[in-house]
Amino acid sequence: MPVIRQARNVSCNFIGHFLLIMKVVSRLRLILIPSIALIFIVLSIVPYSFFIKNIGGILVYKNDGTIFYPSLIMSLLILLLITFLIYRIVTRTLIISIDDNHQLITFLYPLKFSKRQYRFEDISAISFSFWHTRICNFKRLNFKADNSVYKITDFEVSNFRQLEKSAVKNFTLSEGNDFRCLTETQKSDELNNSIKFDINQAKSYRISCYMACGLAILILLSDMFAHSDRKIGLGGDFICVCFLIFSVLKIRQANNIIKKYS
User: Is 38 exposed, middle or buried (0-12, 13-18, 19+ CB in 10 A)?
Assistant: First the structure.
């Protein structure tokens, strides 16, 4: 028995040491990649039709052979929008790594080939920011180091809560985009506000997911009893099933968050 107990202690110590040296690295939400690709494809339809090959019956030339200027203007505006979106993606795609063992935090902009590393004591403060929209609400975590500010949101990061927990543990919590200093009581209030936001956010997207589940089920049932010439096909059914599974998983995630903090 002592040998078994000793083996267990060694195993626990090893696991504890392994967890201690693990880094918290922000992970991009995988769903953003196909979503962004779809947005670019949709936006590219008009300029592609105008400058390369006409598709979708988009009017490029008038009957007399002259350019249809509204389509030209629309194409140029969309190209400007695409350029702006690419610029934002390149400049805002950020990966953060927090290494408790070596007391280091790394900010990597992979698309800019830029990397900055700081010791924990070089991070003067962190803060929360909240975005409220009609569709959904988002939380942003801000890091201040020297004259630089690094920002990351739960919209783009799948393990945001894990990153947030590590940041609150290791750095000084402040308030707002200007990093106002807080008393201990105010810090507690700020953390409570953050938890309330998490609960309200989970309730918000849980409702959206319930609606998405209902829509997916309705489409699948309608397709089941539809005439053969009106069926959406296996591809459409597969998309609906994937959408249904994703919505159910998000509902489960929301319920766990609400149960954890309520």
Answer: exposed
